[in-house]
Write a structure and sequence with these properties.
The complex is a heterodimer of chains A (about 120) and B (about 110).
Chain A lengths: L2 E5 L2 E3 L5 E8 L8 E6 L5 E7 L8 E3 L7 E6 L4 E6 L8 E9 L3 E5 L3 E5 L2
Parallel strand pairs in A: 2-11
Antiparallel strand pairs in A: 1-3, 3-8, 4-5, 4-9, 5-6, 7-8, 9-10, 9-11
Chain B lengths: L8 E4 L5 E6 L9 E5 L6 E4 L13 E6 L2 E6 L8 E11 L2 E6 L3 E5 L1
Parallel strand pairs in B: 1-9
Antiparallel strand pairs in B: 2-6, 3-4, 3-7, 5-6, 7-8, 7-9
The chains are: A mainly beta (about 120), B mainly beta (about 110).
């Protein structure tokens, strides 16, 4: 089965750091762009950023709200995607999903999400 | 940046047709994707590239996109279709990728 499983969420204080992981299985991870999308409690979906594949030089792009604080990494040898989050703010509190990108555009596979709470 | 506007809620009786709109400036020039999200679950792609259905999505789900409005149409609505629905496009701002979601529409089956 095609699957994405996130982990690493939890409670962190404002200004702190956290690293999320996303383990992929059931497909050729290295072929695909991978993104992070988040959802604050009771709110809509917000794109966080993208990690392109080796064929596109592993380039990354970020939403303005996280640029300079968040970093997306991928390890194709481990079929894994990561989200390094620094200088966390209370407004970063959300469920974080990793998602496989279909044809550079849509998100066809989603993980179950991992909750990040930023609070003192 | 590009803004997508969805009605907060749509209500429909079982067996009827539900239409969820997504309004954006010249959205017809973008490819629109739609997601269904049930409470406590991850989103699921139901329509991509305006009107294509992923495998496993019933033919009751269809999409269209023209001008300033994209529309997700659900025919013969069932109780299990009750969920939040989000439209999505990607845009380019100063050569930077931006992925934009609409605010979401809660579909209630009466």
């Amino acid at each position: 089965d095609v699957q994405l499983v996130e982990s690493g969420g939890g409670l962190v204080q404002p200004g702190g750091s956290l690293r999320l992981s996303c383990a992929a299985s059931g497909f050729t991870f290295s072929d695909h762009y991978m993104d992070w999308v988040r959802q604050a409690p009771g709110k809509g979906l917000e794109w966080v950023g993208r990690a392109r594949n080796k064929a596109n030089s592993y380039t990354t792009q970020y939403a303005a709200s996280v640029k300079g604080r968040f970093t997306i990494l991928r390890d194709d040898s481990k079929n894994s995607l990561y989200l390094q989050m620094n200088s966390l703010k209370t407004e970063d509190t959300a469920v974080y999903y990793c998602a496989r990108v279909l044809l550079e555009d849509a998100f066809d596979i989603w993980g179950q999400g991992t909750m990040v709470t930023v609070s003192s | 940046s590009f803004v997508l506007t969805q009605p907060p809620s749509v209500s429909v009786a079982p067996g009827k047709t539900a239409r969820v709109t997504c309004v954006g400036d010249n959205i017809g020039s973008h490819s629109v994707h739609w997601y269904q999200q049930k409470p406590g679950q991850a989103p699921m792609l139901v329509i991509y590239y305006d009107g294509d259905r992923p495998s496993g999505i019933p033919e009751r789900f269809s999409g269209s996109n023209s001008g300033i409005t994209a529309t997700l149409t659900i025919s013969r609505v069932e109780a299990g279709d009750e969920a939040d629905y989000y439209c999505q496009v990607w845009d380019s701002v100063s050569d930077h990728l931006v992925v934009v979601f609409g605010g979401g529409t809660k579909l209630t089956v009466l």
